[in-house]
Amino acid sequence: MIGLGRMARALLLPLIEQGKFLPENIFGVVGQEASVSQSLSRLPKGVKVVSSNQQEALNVWRAPIQLLAVKPQNLDSVALKAAAAKDDFDLETKPLLVSLLAGVTVRQLQLAFPNHLCVRAVVNTPALVKAGLTALSWGEGLTNERRLLVRTLFDPISEVWELSEDRLDAFLALTSSGPAYVALIVEALADGAVASGLTRELSYDLAVKTLSGTSLLLNKQNLHPGELKDMVASPAGTTIAALRHLEKRGLRSALMEAVLIAAERSREMSSRLE
Ligand SMILES: NC(=O)c1ccc[n+]([C@@H]2O[C@H](COP(=O)([O-])OP(=O)(O)OC[C@H]3O[C@@H](n4cnc5c(N)ncnc54)[C@H](OP(=O)(O)O)[C@@H]3O)[C@@H](O)[C@H]2O)c1
Fold first, then answer.
1. What is the pLDDT of residue 87?
2. CATH no. for residue 234?
3. What pLDDT does 91 receive?
4. 157 and 262, same structural domain?
5. Is the CB of 1 under 6 A from ligand 1?
6. Probe residue for ligand 1, chosen from 29, 30, 122, 270 as the CB with the greatest number of ligand atoms within 8 Å
7. Is any ligand 1 atom within 6 A of the Cβ of residue 42?
8. Do both 159 and 190 map to the same domain?
9. Are 132 and 158 in contact (CB under 8 A)?
10. Domain total for the chain?
11. What pLDDT does 271 receive?
């Protein structure tokens, strides 16, 4: 593990819980000396953690599977360490590097880590509660066996798709940015309920549960969203009056544009790193 923050732990803990890895076989590197004890207190006994400035940290580059979970701005310094470590180890097979870094393409990973087999994983924040969505984009040279292995890393916290790099911008514009759009909608719905007289606490609770219940219904009954909307909107009723207002104010168009803008921004950010 190169980086042991929130996302790395969310991925690692279920894998240890399910017995896919023994804690003794996990070696983690963090940025600051002060984070070592904090990281250890959040992980099962047996996991070893050191800070990146310790000589021992170089051993992480010997591991057959390496999970990169630092912030994107740390990529260059981490890649330099990997390159320096290469001279110390003569590995028969290239290690696997699975990167969680937002906005770093698999091509950029391969340039930064030429001695690795690289995979880019785009995971969304609901993975923190094992309800995530992951897209995997493969670098060159990965056998089917290796691909299967990478999928199993993400299975416990998410549904997994394999997508080519050119589709990842759209994937993350919907799934990675999506939780923020949805949070905004929840907040606005709750504000409406407060304006109509409910307490703040109850309003948030009801807004979240309306959303999760609706998702479940759409999912379990495999309903088209339009079908569900029509089921709820009765003639001359409250829902159709509210929907008419949302259409007038362009809610659908605003959401469509939001996804397009996020995808465009993601493309722009990746090309800046080229
Ligand atoms: N959180 C999410 O929901 C989410 C979702 C999708 C993708 N991601 C991606 O996942 C990555 C990690 O995100 P996060 O939220 O888990 O970040 P985080 O909580 O800030 O964790 C970053 C980790 O990297 C360590 N680190 C910093 N410099 C390092 C170095 N030179 N060598 C080794 N470790 C170093 C940090 O240690 P110190 O604390 O000691 O500096 C910390 O353990 C990011 O690239 C992000 O784009 C996150």
1. 66
2. 1.10.3730.10
3. 62
4. no
5. no
6. 30
7. no
8. no
9. yes
10. 2
11. 77
- Residue 10 and residue 241: Cα distance in Å, rounded? 43
Exposure string for 41-70, b = 16+ CB within 10 A, e = fewer: eebeeebbbbbbeeeebbbbbebeebbbbb
| Whether residues 139 and 248 fall in one domain | no
Residue found under tokens 């983690």:
28
For residue 75 and ligand 1, the question of a CB distance below 6 A is answered with no
pLDDT reported for residue 86: 75
132 and 189 share a domain?
A: no
Instruction: Indicate if 147 and 199 belong to the same structural domain.
Output: no
- Could you state, in chain order, the average pLDDT of each consecutive group of 10 residues for the chain (274 residues)? 94 93 97 96 96 94 96 94 77 88 93 95 94 97 96 96 95 97 98 98 98 97 97 98 98 98 91 67
Is the distance from the beta carbon of residue 70 to the nearest atom of ligand 1 less than 6 Å?
yes
Distance from C-alpha of 255 to C-alpha of 253, rounded to nearest angstrom: 5
One domain for residues 123 and 258: no
